[in-house]
DNA sequence: GTAATACCTAAAGCTGACTTTAGGTCAAGG
DNA sequence: CCTTGACCTAAAGTCAGCTTTAGGTATTAC
Protein backbone atom coordinates (compact mmCIF):
# COMPACT_ATOMS: atom_id res chain seq x y z
CA UNK A 1 0.00 0.00 0.00
CA UNK A 2 1.29 3.41 -1.03
CA UNK A 3 0.23 7.01 -0.54
CA UNK A 4 -0.16 9.34 -3.48
CA UNK A 5 3.13 11.01 -2.55
CA UNK A 6 5.02 7.71 -2.66
CA UNK A 7 3.55 6.79 -6.03
CA UNK A 8 4.42 10.25 -7.31
CA UNK A 9 8.08 9.65 -6.34
CA UNK A 10 8.17 6.08 -7.66
CA UNK A 11 6.86 7.03 -11.08
CA UNK A 12 8.09 10.58 -11.24
CA UNK A 13 4.58 11.82 -11.94
CA UNK A 14 3.24 14.96 -10.21
CA UNK A 15 0.65 14.39 -7.47
CA UNK A 16 -1.73 16.68 -9.33
CA UNK A 17 -1.49 14.40 -12.36
CA UNK A 18 -2.24 11.30 -10.30
CA UNK A 19 -5.33 12.97 -8.87
CA UNK A 20 -6.35 14.03 -12.37
CA UNK A 21 -5.95 10.41 -13.54
CA UNK A 22 -8.05 9.24 -10.63
CA UNK A 23 -10.77 11.71 -11.58
CA UNK A 24 -10.61 10.38 -15.12
CA UNK A 25 -11.38 6.93 -13.74
CA UNK A 26 -7.99 5.29 -14.27
CA UNK A 27 -8.14 3.56 -10.87
CA UNK A 28 -11.68 2.16 -10.80
CA UNK A 29 -11.18 -0.02 -7.71
CA UNK A 30 -8.98 2.18 -5.59
CA UNK A 31 -9.79 2.14 -1.88
CA UNK A 32 -9.60 5.05 0.52
CA UNK A 33 -9.26 5.32 4.27
CA UNK A 34 -10.92 8.43 5.69
CA UNK A 35 -10.73 10.15 2.33
CA UNK A 36 -7.08 9.35 1.63
CA UNK A 37 -6.22 7.28 -1.44
CA UNK A 38 -4.67 3.83 -0.97
CA UNK A 39 -2.60 2.82 -3.98
CA UNK A 40 -2.27 -0.99 -3.96
CA UNK A 41 -0.36 -3.26 -6.37
CA UNK A 42 -3.54 -3.16 -8.41
CA UNK A 43 -3.29 0.59 -8.95
CA UNK A 44 0.47 0.34 -9.58
CA UNK A 45 -0.25 -2.18 -12.34
CA UNK A 46 -2.99 0.08 -13.74
CA UNK A 47 -0.58 3.00 -13.77
CA UNK A 48 1.98 0.97 -15.70
CA UNK A 49 -0.64 0.16 -18.32
CA UNK A 50 -1.66 3.81 -18.45
CA UNK A 51 1.97 4.82 -19.09
CA UNK A 52 2.30 2.19 -21.78
CA UNK A 53 -0.91 3.20 -23.55
CA UNK A 54 0.01 6.84 -23.23
CA UNK A 55 3.43 6.39 -24.83
CA UNK A 56 1.72 4.39 -27.56
CA UNK A 57 -0.12 7.60 -28.41
CA UNK A 58 -3.54 6.79 -26.93
CA UNK A 59 -5.62 9.72 -25.69
CA UNK A 60 -6.80 10.11 -22.11
CA UNK A 61 -10.45 9.48 -22.99
CA UNK A 62 -9.56 6.27 -24.78
CA UNK A 63 -7.49 5.06 -21.84
CA UNK A 64 -10.55 5.79 -19.72
CA UNK A 65 -12.63 3.60 -22.01
CA UNK A 66 -10.07 0.83 -21.69
CA UNK A 67 -10.24 1.05 -17.90
CA UNK A 68 -14.00 0.76 -18.08
CA UNK A 69 -13.57 -2.39 -20.14
CA UNK A 70 -11.36 -3.99 -17.53
CA UNK A 71 -14.14 -3.56 -14.97
CA UNK A 72 -16.52 -5.48 -17.24
CA UNK A 73 -14.44 -8.68 -17.07
CA UNK A 74 -14.12 -11.52 -19.56
CA UNK A 75 -16.76 -10.22 -21.98
CA UNK A 76 -14.33 -7.48 -23.10
CA UNK A 77 -11.25 -9.66 -23.72
CA UNK A 78 -11.74 -9.54 -27.49
CA UNK A 79 -12.08 -5.76 -27.51
CA UNK A 80 -9.04 -5.35 -25.32
CA UNK A 81 -7.00 -7.62 -27.59
CA UNK A 82 -8.06 -5.58 -30.58
CA UNK A 83 -7.05 -2.38 -28.80
CA UNK A 84 -3.57 -3.70 -28.00
CA UNK A 85 -3.12 -5.01 -31.54
CA UNK A 86 -4.03 -1.60 -32.93
CA UNK A 87 -1.60 0.12 -30.54
CA UNK A 88 1.13 -2.36 -31.43
CA UNK A 89 0.69 -1.59 -35.14
CA UNK A 90 0.58 2.14 -34.48
CA UNK A 91 3.83 2.03 -32.51
CA UNK A 92 5.55 -0.08 -35.16
CA UNK A 93 4.56 2.57 -37.64
CA UNK A 94 5.74 5.38 -35.43
CA UNK A 95 9.13 3.70 -35.00
CA UNK A 96 9.52 3.50 -38.79
CA UNK A 97 8.65 7.14 -39.11
CA UNK A 98 11.13 8.13 -36.43
CA UNK A 99 13.77 6.03 -38.14
CA UNK A 100 13.35 8.14 -41.25
CA UNK A 101 13.47 11.31 -39.17
CA UNK A 102 16.66 10.02 -37.56
CA UNK A 103 18.28 9.45 -40.94
CA UNK A 104 17.39 12.97 -41.98
CA UNK A 105 18.89 14.34 -38.77
CA UNK A 106 22.08 12.34 -39.28
CA UNK A 107 22.30 13.70 -42.79
CA UNK A 108 21.89 17.23 -41.43
CA UNK A 109 24.69 16.62 -38.91
CA UNK A 110 26.98 15.59 -41.75
CA UNK A 111 25.79 18.59 -43.76
CA UNK A 112 26.78 21.11 -41.09
CA UNK A 113 30.07 19.36 -40.33
CA UNK A 114 30.94 19.83 -44.00
CA UNK A 115 29.67 23.40 -44.03
CA UNK A 116 31.89 24.21 -41.04
CA UNK A 117 34.91 22.65 -42.79
CA UNK A 118 34.19 24.42 -46.08
CA UNK A 119 33.02 27.72 -44.61
CA UNK A 120 29.95 27.62 -46.85
CA UNK A 121 27.27 25.30 -48.22
CA UNK A 122 28.17 25.56 -51.90
CA UNK A 123 30.13 22.30 -52.27
CA UNK A 124 27.40 20.31 -50.54
CA UNK A 125 24.57 21.87 -52.48
CA UNK A 126 26.41 21.06 -55.71
CA UNK A 127 26.15 17.36 -54.77
CA UNK A 128 22.38 17.50 -54.29
CA UNK A 129 20.16 15.69 -54.92
CA UNK A 130 22.05 12.52 -55.92
CA UNK A 131 25.81 13.01 -55.96
CA UNK A 132 26.41 12.71 -52.21
CA UNK A 133 28.91 10.19 -50.78
CA UNK A 134 27.16 6.77 -50.80
CA UNK A 135 26.50 6.46 -47.06
CA UNK A 136 25.22 10.00 -46.80
CA UNK A 137 23.14 9.59 -49.92
CA UNK A 138 21.39 6.69 -48.23
CA UNK A 139 20.54 8.77 -45.17
CA UNK A 140 19.35 11.61 -47.36
CA UNK A 141 17.16 9.42 -49.56
CA UNK A 142 15.72 7.51 -46.65
CA UNK A 143 15.06 10.68 -44.69
CA UNK A 144 13.15 12.16 -47.62
CA UNK A 145 10.93 9.15 -48.17
CA UNK A 146 7.21 9.80 -47.94
CA UNK A 147 5.15 8.01 -45.26
CA UNK A 148 3.45 4.76 -46.37
CA UNK B 1 6.62 28.09 -57.99
CA UNK B 2 3.56 26.85 -56.13
CA UNK B 3 0.46 28.43 -54.59
CA UNK B 4 -0.48 27.76 -51.01
CA UNK B 5 -3.23 25.42 -52.21
CA UNK B 6 -0.76 23.31 -54.20
CA UNK B 7 1.66 23.05 -51.29
CA UNK B 8 -1.22 22.10 -49.02
CA UNK B 9 -2.06 19.20 -51.36
CA UNK B 10 1.56 18.14 -51.86
CA UNK B 11 2.30 17.93 -48.14
CA UNK B 12 -1.17 17.15 -46.89
CA UNK B 13 -1.03 20.12 -44.55
CA UNK B 14 -4.07 22.43 -44.16
CA UNK B 15 -3.79 25.85 -45.77
CA UNK B 16 -4.51 27.43 -42.40
CA UNK B 17 -1.48 25.65 -40.96
CA UNK B 18 0.78 26.85 -43.77
CA UNK B 19 -0.35 30.42 -43.15
CA UNK B 20 0.23 29.93 -39.43
CA UNK B 21 3.75 28.65 -40.17
CA UNK B 22 4.37 31.67 -42.35
CA UNK B 23 3.26 33.97 -39.52
CA UNK B 24 5.65 32.12 -37.22
CA UNK B 25 8.47 33.04 -39.58
CA UNK B 26 9.18 29.60 -41.06
CA UNK B 27 9.56 31.02 -44.57
CA UNK B 28 11.78 34.05 -44.02
CA UNK B 29 12.48 34.72 -47.70
CA UNK B 30 9.15 33.91 -49.26
CA UNK B 31 8.11 36.26 -52.05
CA UNK B 32 4.61 37.47 -52.84
CA UNK B 33 2.96 38.83 -55.97
CA UNK B 34 0.17 41.30 -55.20
CA UNK B 35 -0.24 39.82 -51.73
CA UNK B 36 -0.30 36.16 -52.79
CA UNK B 37 2.38 33.83 -51.44
CA UNK B 38 4.86 32.28 -53.87
CA UNK B 39 6.23 29.00 -52.55
CA UNK B 40 9.54 28.29 -54.35
CA UNK B 41 11.88 25.28 -54.02
CA UNK B 42 13.38 27.25 -51.16
CA UNK B 43 10.16 27.19 -49.16
CA UNK B 44 9.53 23.55 -50.06
CA UNK B 45 12.96 22.70 -48.62
CA UNK B 46 12.22 24.78 -45.52
CA UNK B 47 8.93 22.94 -45.06
CA UNK B 48 10.71 19.59 -45.27
CA UNK B 49 13.08 20.69 -42.51
CA UNK B 50 10.15 21.94 -40.43
CA UNK B 51 8.46 18.54 -40.76
CA UNK B 52 11.67 16.79 -39.78
CA UNK B 53 12.27 18.99 -36.74
CA UNK B 54 8.65 18.71 -35.72
CA UNK B 55 8.67 14.92 -35.79
CA UNK B 56 11.90 15.03 -33.80
CA UNK B 57 9.83 16.67 -31.06
CA UNK B 58 10.98 20.28 -31.45
CA UNK B 59 8.52 23.01 -30.50
CA UNK B 60 7.26 25.67 -32.87
CA UNK B 61 9.15 28.48 -31.17
CA UNK B 62 12.41 26.52 -31.38
CA UNK B 63 11.86 25.82 -35.06
CA UNK B 64 11.33 29.55 -35.43
CA UNK B 65 14.69 30.18 -33.75
CA UNK B 66 16.33 27.72 -36.11
CA UNK B 67 14.84 29.53 -39.10
CA UNK B 68 16.22 32.79 -37.76
CA UNK B 69 19.65 31.14 -37.58
CA UNK B 70 19.53 30.12 -41.22
CA UNK B 71 19.05 33.77 -42.19
CA UNK B 72 22.25 34.71 -40.30
CA UNK B 73 24.46 32.55 -42.55
CA UNK B 74 27.78 30.88 -41.81
CA UNK B 75 28.19 32.34 -38.32
CA UNK B 76 25.45 29.99 -37.05
CA UNK B 77 26.76 26.73 -38.56
CA UNK B 78 28.09 25.55 -35.20
CA UNK B 79 24.81 26.26 -33.43
CA UNK B 80 22.84 24.54 -36.13
CA UNK B 81 25.08 21.49 -35.95
CA UNK B 82 24.57 21.35 -32.17
CA UNK B 83 20.83 21.58 -32.63
CA UNK B 84 20.75 18.68 -35.08
CA UNK B 85 23.04 16.59 -32.87
CA UNK B 86 20.73 17.18 -29.91
CA UNK B 87 17.69 16.26 -32.01
CA UNK B 88 19.44 13.13 -33.30
CA UNK B 89 20.17 12.01 -29.73
CA UNK B 90 16.63 12.80 -28.60
CA UNK B 91 15.14 10.75 -31.43
CA UNK B 92 17.47 7.82 -30.75
CA UNK B 93 16.25 7.90 -27.18
CA UNK B 94 12.64 8.11 -28.22
CA UNK B 95 13.04 5.09 -30.49
CA UNK B 96 14.45 3.07 -27.58
CA UNK B 97 11.54 4.10 -25.40
CA UNK B 98 9.04 3.17 -28.11
CA UNK B 99 10.79 -0.17 -28.52
CA UNK B 100 10.09 -0.92 -24.86
CA UNK B 101 6.50 0.23 -25.27
CA UNK B 102 6.20 -2.06 -28.27
CA UNK B 103 7.43 -5.05 -26.28
CA UNK B 104 4.89 -4.31 -23.57
CA UNK B 105 2.12 -4.10 -26.16
CA UNK B 106 3.19 -7.40 -27.72
CA UNK B 107 3.13 -8.98 -24.29
CA UNK B 108 -0.39 -7.63 -23.75
CA UNK B 109 -1.50 -9.09 -27.08
CA UNK B 110 -0.22 -12.49 -25.98
CA UNK B 111 -1.89 -11.97 -22.58
CA UNK B 112 -5.35 -11.42 -24.06
CA UNK B 113 -4.97 -14.20 -26.59
CA UNK B 114 -4.36 -16.52 -23.66
CA UNK B 115 -7.18 -15.00 -21.62
CA UNK B 116 -9.57 -15.61 -24.52
CA UNK B 117 -8.43 -19.24 -24.80
CA UNK B 118 -8.66 -19.82 -21.05
CA UNK B 119 -11.80 -17.76 -20.43
CA UNK B 120 -10.05 -16.01 -17.54
CA UNK B 121 -6.74 -14.46 -16.50
CA UNK B 122 -5.94 -16.83 -13.64
CA UNK B 123 -3.45 -19.10 -15.41
CA UNK B 124 -1.50 -16.14 -16.78
CA UNK B 125 -1.42 -14.28 -13.51
CA UNK B 126 -0.07 -17.41 -11.80
CA UNK B 127 2.97 -17.18 -14.12
CA UNK B 128 3.74 -13.58 -13.14
CA UNK B 129 6.21 -12.07 -12.61
CA UNK B 130 8.86 -14.53 -13.84
CA UNK B 131 7.37 -17.87 -14.91
CA UNK B 132 6.18 -16.81 -18.34
CA UNK B 133 7.22 -18.69 -21.50
CA UNK B 134 10.78 -17.51 -22.35
CA UNK B 135 9.92 -15.37 -25.38
CA UNK B 136 7.01 -13.72 -23.60
CA UNK B 137 9.07 -13.25 -20.46
CA UNK B 138 11.56 -11.28 -22.53
CA UNK B 139 8.87 -8.96 -23.87
CA UNK B 140 7.43 -8.52 -20.39
CA UNK B 141 10.78 -7.77 -18.75
CA UNK B 142 11.88 -5.45 -21.50
CA UNK B 143 8.54 -3.66 -21.52
CA UNK B 144 8.77 -3.05 -17.79
CA UNK B 145 12.28 -1.61 -17.88
CA UNK B 146 12.64 1.88 -16.49
CA UNK B 147 13.87 4.69 -18.74
CA UNK B 148 17.63 5.38 -18.64
C1' DG C 1 -0.88 24.13 21.71
C1' DT C 2 0.65 25.53 17.58
C1' DA C 3 3.05 24.91 13.44
C1' DA C 4 4.62 22.17 9.76
C1' DT C 5 3.45 18.39 6.63
C1' DA C 6 0.80 15.45 3.82
C1' DC C 7 -3.30 14.68 2.36
C1' DC C 8 -8.19 16.33 0.29
C1' DT C 9 -11.82 18.99 -3.29
C1' DA C 10 -13.83 21.84 -6.92
C1' DA C 11 -13.01 25.05 -10.08
C1' DA C 12 -10.35 28.13 -12.68
C1' DG C 13 -6.18 28.77 -15.39
C1' DC C 14 -2.48 27.69 -18.66
C1' DT C 15 0.15 26.19 -22.95
C1' DG C 16 0.93 24.63 -27.48
C1' DA C 17 -0.55 24.07 -31.90
C1' DC C 18 -3.65 24.84 -34.57
C1' DT C 19 -8.53 26.15 -36.65
C1' DT C 20 -12.41 28.97 -37.34
C1' DT C 21 -14.67 33.23 -38.19
C1' DA C 22 -15.77 37.42 -40.34
C1' DG C 23 -14.79 40.25 -43.63
C1' DG C 24 -12.29 41.49 -47.92
C1' DT C 25 -9.62 41.34 -52.92
C1' DC C 26 -9.21 39.67 -57.48
C1' DA C 27 -9.47 36.93 -61.89
C1' DA C 28 -12.01 33.79 -64.89
C1' DG C 29 -16.54 31.68 -66.74
C1' DG C 30 -21.42 31.81 -68.38
C1' DC D 1 -22.16 41.88 -64.72
C1' DC D 2 -22.32 38.85 -61.32
C1' DT D 3 -21.03 34.77 -59.16
C1' DT D 4 -17.69 31.24 -58.12
C1' DG D 5 -13.26 29.95 -56.42
C1' DA D 6 -8.77 30.76 -54.71
C1' DC D 7 -6.41 33.71 -52.32
C1' DC D 8 -5.79 37.34 -48.21
C1' DT D 9 -5.88 39.31 -42.82
C1' DA D 10 -6.55 39.84 -37.84
C1' DA D 11 -8.57 38.09 -34.09
C1' DA D 12 -11.13 34.90 -31.55
C1' DG D 13 -11.95 30.07 -30.55
C1' DT D 14 -10.80 25.13 -29.61
C1' DC D 15 -8.83 21.05 -27.51
C1' DA D 16 -5.89 18.07 -24.81
C1' DG D 17 -3.57 17.44 -20.84
C1' DC D 18 -2.32 19.01 -17.25
C1' DT D 19 -1.42 22.63 -13.17
C1' DT D 20 -2.64 26.12 -9.99
C1' DT D 21 -5.55 28.21 -6.66
C1' DA D 22 -8.25 28.65 -2.67
C1' DG D 23 -9.82 26.65 1.01
C1' DG D 24 -10.09 22.68 4.26
C1' DT D 25 -8.76 18.21 7.40
C1' DA D 26 -5.71 15.25 10.07
C1' DT D 27 -1.45 13.76 12.11
C1' DT D 28 3.15 14.30 13.86
C1' DA D 29 7.08 17.30 15.86
C1' DC D 30 8.60 20.51 19.05
Folded structure, characterized:
- 2 copies of one chain form a homodimer.
- The first copy, chain A, has 2 domains: about 5-70, Orthogonal Bundle (Multidrug-efflux Transporter Regulator, Chain: A, Domain 2), CATH 1.10.1660.10; about 75-145.
- The mean pLDDT of chain A is about 95.
- In chain A, α5 packs across α7.
- The radius of gyration of chain A is 24 Å and the shape is elongated.
- In chain A, strands 1-2 form a two-stranded antiparallel sheet.
- The first copy, chain A, has helices spanning about 5-10, 15-25, 40-55, 60-70, 75-120, 120-125, 135-145; strands at about 30-35, 35-40.
- Chain A has about 150 residues and is mainly alpha-helical.
- The interface of A and B includes residues 55, 84, 87, 91 and 112 of A.
- Chain A binds a DNA duplex (30 and 30 nucleotides) through α2.
Q: What's the arrangement of strands in the largest beta sheet of chain A?
A: 1-2
Shape-level CATH architecture of the largest domain in chain A: Orthogonal Bundle
The CATH topology of the largest domain in chain A comes to Multidrug-efflux Transporter Regulator, Chain: A, Domain 2
Oligomeric state? homodimer
Determine the most extensive contact between two protein chains. A-B, 36 and 36 residues
Mean pLDDT of chain A: 95
Q: What is the N-to-C order of secondary-structure elements of chain A (H for helix, E for strand)?
A: HHEEHHHHH
The number of helices of chain A is 7
Helicity of chain A, in percent?
Answer: 55-70%
Biggest β-sheet strands, sense, barrel of chain A = 2 strands, antiparallel
User: Would you tell me the structural class of the helices and strands of chain A?
Assistant: mainly alpha
What is the tally of beta strands of chain A? 2
Overall geometric form of chain A: elongated
Radius of gyration based on Cα positions of chain A:
24 Å
SS strand fraction of chain A: under 5%
Distance between the termini of chain A: 47 Å
Low-confidence stretches of chain A: none
Amino acid sequence: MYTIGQVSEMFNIPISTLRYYDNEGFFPNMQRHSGIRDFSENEIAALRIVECLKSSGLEIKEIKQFMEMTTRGAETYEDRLKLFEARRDAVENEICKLQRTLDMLKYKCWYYEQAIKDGNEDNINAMLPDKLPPKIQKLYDNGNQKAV
